[in-house]
Structures are given as structure tokens and as C-alpha cells.
Write a structure and sequence with these properties.
The complex is a heterodimer of chains A (about 400) and B (about 300). Helix content of chain A is about 35%, strand content about 25%. Chain A is α+β, with helices and mostly antiparallel strands. In chain A, strands 7, 8, 9, 10, 11 and 12 form a six-stranded antiparallel sheet that branches. In chain A, strands 1-6-2-3 form a four-stranded antiparallel sheet, covered by helices on one side. In chain A, helix 12 (about 355-365) links the parallel strand 17 (about 350-355) and strand 18 (about 370-375). The radius of gyration of chain A is 26 Å and the shape is elongated. In chain B, about 35% of the residues lie in helices and about 20% in strands. In chain B, strand 10 (about 145-150), helix 5 (about 155-165) and strand 11 form a beta-alpha-beta unit. Classes of the chains: A alpha+beta (about 400), B alpha/beta (about 300). At the A-B interface, helix 9 and helix 13 of A face helix 4 and helix 5 of B.
Chain lengths: ~400, ~300
Amino acid sequence: MNIHEYQAKELLKAYDVPVPVGGVAYSDKQAAQVAEDIGGSKWVVKAQVHAGGRGKAGGVKLVHSIDEVKKTADGMIGSHLVTHQTGPEGALVHRVWVEQASHIKKEFYLGLVIDRATQRITVMASSEGGTDIEEVARSSPEKIVKEVVDPAIGLRDFQCRKIATAIGLKGRLMPHSVKLMKALYRCMRDRDALQIEINPLAIVSVGEEEKLLVLDAKLNFDDNALYRQRGITDLRDLAEEDPKEVEASGHGLNYIALDGNIGCIVNGAGLAMASLDAITLHGGRPANFLDVGGGASPEKVTNACRIVLQDPNVKAILVNIFAGINRCDWIALGLIQACNHLQIKVPLVVRLAGTNVEEGRRILAESGLAFITAENLDAAAAKAVAIVNE
Amino acid sequence: MSIFVDKHSRVIFQGFTGEHASFHAQDAIGIGTNVVGGVTPGKGGTMHLGLPVFDTVAEAVAATGADVSGVFVPPPFNADALMEAIDAGIRVAVTIADGIPIHDMVRLQRYRIGRDAILIGPNSPGIITPGECKVGIMPSHIYRKGNIGIVSRSGTLNYEATEQMSVLGIGISTSVGIGGDPINGTDFVAVLKAFEADPETQIVVLIGEIGGPQEVAAARWAQKNMSKPIVGFVAGVSAPPGRRMGHAGAIIASESDTARAKMDTMEALGLYVARNPAHIGQTVLQAMREHGIKP
């Protein structure tokens, strides 16, 4: 689960992580009020959407007057921000974050991830802040330093000092950075975060003094742990998610919209991916990924059909079920129920295998409905592709 | 022979009296698995499926000599149940649970250091040695005895490959699902190592997915250390980057995470690769012919 930048900054502030003074606003008037309340002479207005790449897309603006804050917020709120992560339709901006602009002297990258190779939390840092870390990893991997954390011991001060030294944080900034890194680690562990990305972490000057400030923060949380993280669950913004995906998850289905025209209903994530692959290898384009999971009832199958058909591009549906804990007879009943309730106008190609397969096939055959059956995965994909290419 | 479990395995189920454990314990008994009891805290001293129920794994092990446990405990409590199994001296712990918090897995993997137990899963279909022992949720009737080892992340894709082979008259020595989560107990390399040492297994089918470095690590290890041919497949050539494809671990975060990159590496390292998920069975047959292996 992702959260907005303003939520991330508010959460980190509770861990004593230094973040800019700012506030969230849902209208241009509110934005002006926030700027007045926090004071200063320069502000940054930032569109709050989950997608990355906001800066380049015009979603982050430096302004010099309250009037400009108001105008900028007015331009952002209600508009669609198109970044490289949103797709051409963009993301609707519901709110902005207004903060005091900082005098930035240097920018760094600081990230905490769960590294799959070591199976541990790993702190990564780079002196190349403000840029795409993937790009740094490609072009100059030596500029990224890493420390792996033993979960039984936790992140140690000396590890933080190693990182600070490697990226060039010296003097009073060294102990400050140790405190900051340890706070991020505590937040990651205690709130079941999958990832915390601070990009950039900046050295800013306040008068004669230099200090560290988190200018942007991206936090991602473990869906599987939300049951014990009520405070985090409350931060979920459904408006940022695909409504079909939200509806599907409410029915215990895992749905991901794609841009093709063959709808897919499959059980199991691996077989679902392989079914999309088989369609692609036959020259077709899948419209979605959909995993009905284990123990799919007829109702669940009907819901799956309804969600797939909400996509107007769907010209045929491929149903591929290899029943282990599922039952082919239930799947068949679900498909018949779906045909009767939803007036499905596109052809359904059905491949059933595994538990109760004979019963499932018999139910489909005796229904009198025009299912196109297939013996195996290859035949099913070929038939579905042939239909949409007609 | 086989790997990890066989007819000598003494199996218990944790969460024994629950619906899923009951169903799959009965199915396991049906194919000849030596199920010796189960654990449900608070129900110790009762009987279930004609077998004794214990409050703790330690008691179950002491009374029955159990060495394998199927952990059918809900995800929030699963990591704790696995530690209990390991603490009690269980040799192979199998967890089906989909949805264990990843920080629980980080701690569990730390706990396993210095302890020998084999952990299969989480988010796994389990393990089956056909005709001898099943600890999992796979449809046991599709698995026939043979000389091909299977290791996969996915359950249903494991069934798919098994059926493709079955149609061609090819059977299985042991099938292991390591699970679809980003952190698995036993990884591909550990399973390959066991298959290499198993005289009954002559070819290994390795079925991976997008996301993570495990498939490539396994292929590199195999090239240096395995004498037996491997047939690889990686699901997700059509998966878009940055999206979790059902499994928590199936996400393309970098170029090396893609299915194509993984299969290219496998091929370059000398593995047989089925580029099409429908051709896994045929590719196994080809490998058998080229190595003079009979089903």
C-alpha cells in the first residue's frame, strides 16, 4: 500500500525525522492560508498523487508570493498530472502540499528496502541525490553504499557512520544523520513498511547553520501486515487506485488491468501469468491479469466475469482453471450463472483441468450455452486469439 | 528415493482441526502419507481423524516421533508456528500460508540460522513424493511416480507442468513448491542440491517467475555443480514492470527481474528452456531423448 508524500512526512515527523514545515490543502484558498500560517518568503507547492516523476511533469513548483501559492494550487487541484508513471490519462490531483522552500546546498539519496538476496533490511545511500536511483545503479553502481541489518540486533550506530562517511556527511551532520537513519529503520520495522525512500535528503542552510532535511519521502507498506497497522490502513487513498482493482480485491480477486482485448480468468498467480504469456506467444494481447485464487465459489466466478467485462476492449474471455483446492464443477456453475445474469456477448473459451474436471465439463456441455472448450493451455490460447483476430 | 519427504516421514499438521488441514490431511493419508497426529493449542488430549491432537509441537514430537509438519495456521500466526516446529526438532516444516507479513519472514530467517530445519514455503502448494508422502494442497491424483524432479514458485503452474508430462507418460520423483513470496525458506538452489544428490531423480524442471534474483542464482549454481539436465521456464514475459502479478514476489523492479532476461541467462548457462508455458512437457521429453533417459 502506498501513501501520499504529505502523509509520509507527517508519519516521519512523529519519529523525529526532520521534514520541512508545511501543510496539506484541498483548495487554492486553503493553500494560501497554509502558506501564511507557516510563514516565510518562498514556498514549494507539490501536487499530491502516488505516481513518481512529479517534478518533471510540473507537479512541483517554487513560488515567491502568497498570491502565487494560490494561483499554483488552483492550477494543480482538479487537473490531471501526467508523469511517466501515470499513463497518458494522468492522475487527478485532489490536494497539494505547501511547504517552506529550503536553501539547498547538497542532495543525497537514502533508502531502506527489504533486499531479496540477503532477506534483510538494507540501507542504501548515495551522494547522487535528487536523481533516479535506478539510473545511478546502472551507470555508477560504486556510488551506492549499502549496509545490511541483522534483524536480531538492529541497525547499529557504526553502520550509519559508515554510510555517512561514504557519502560525505561530516562534522555535526554525521551524528544527525545517524539519528535520522535509525529513526527511519524504526519506522520501517515498527510500521511494517516494505520500502522507505528519501530522495532527496538535503543539506540545507538556515542562516549560518547547516542541517539535514527530508525533502521528499516515499513509503510503501506491506498489505499482509495491515491487520496490525490500523493507523497506516487509515492512510489508504482509494482514489489513487484503479476502481476495478479495488472492486476485485473486495471480492477476493486479484485483478490488474492491461491494454489488450482478451479478458483472462485464471486460478493461481503463476498459471495466470503463464496464460497471459501463452496468449502473447500466439500473437494476441491480454486485457487483464485475474487470479480467482483458491476455493472459488460460483459467486466469485460470476464477479470475476463482471469485472473483466467492465473493460470495453474485451472481445473474448479465456478461462483457464487447473483446480487443486478449487473444483471444476463450481467453476462451471459460476460460468453458467455469469452467462445468465450478465448477458455476456463475447465468446468464452474455457479450459478446465484438475479436481472434478469430468463433472465440470459435463455441466458446461449440458448447459446448452455456447462455451468454446479447450483441452489444454496451448489450444485455449490459440482459440482465444483466433476469435479476436476474426 | 526422493527428496525431503518419503514413506518413512512421520507427518503432523499444525492447525490440525481446522477445515483446510483436515481436508488435506485426509487426502494425504489417502495417498499413503504416514500422518501421526496434529497440533491445535487448547485441544490437546482429544482425537481428530482418529489421530491424537496435542497442544504443542514439542508434545507431538515426543509422543509420535514426528519429523515433518504441515503448518496450516493463519498468516498472522504462521511464522510463530514455524519457529515452534523448528524449536521442537521438526526436520521439514511446510507452510502453505499466503499472506505472512514480510518482516515476520525476515525474523524467521534470522531464527533459522544455526538450526537445521528445512522450511518449504510460504505461499507454497507444498511437497509431494507420489505414492509416499504429501504435505500440501496439490491435487494428488495428477502426480504419478517417476524420475523427474520439479521445483516451482507457483502451485498451479506446477500442476500444469505435471499434467503436460503425465500426458507424455512422464512421472515425478518429488515435486517441491518453494512459494510465491519474496522471501522463501528453501530456495531453488537448496532444492537443486537435493535433487542432484537423489539417485531417483534424473532431470529437474525449474519453474520460476518474474522478480528477484533466485532463478538466475539457481542457473549459475547448476552450471557449476549439477550433472543432471535442467529444464527451465519463467512465467511473466507479458507482465508490465512495477506491478505485483498476484504473488507478492512477482514484480519487475529492474531489468534483470524480467522473464526474458532470466530465461536468456538460463539458456546461456546451458539449461534447456521452454519459452512457451505449453511446451514444458515437450522440452522435458527432448532433454530425456538427448540424454538417453527413459520415463
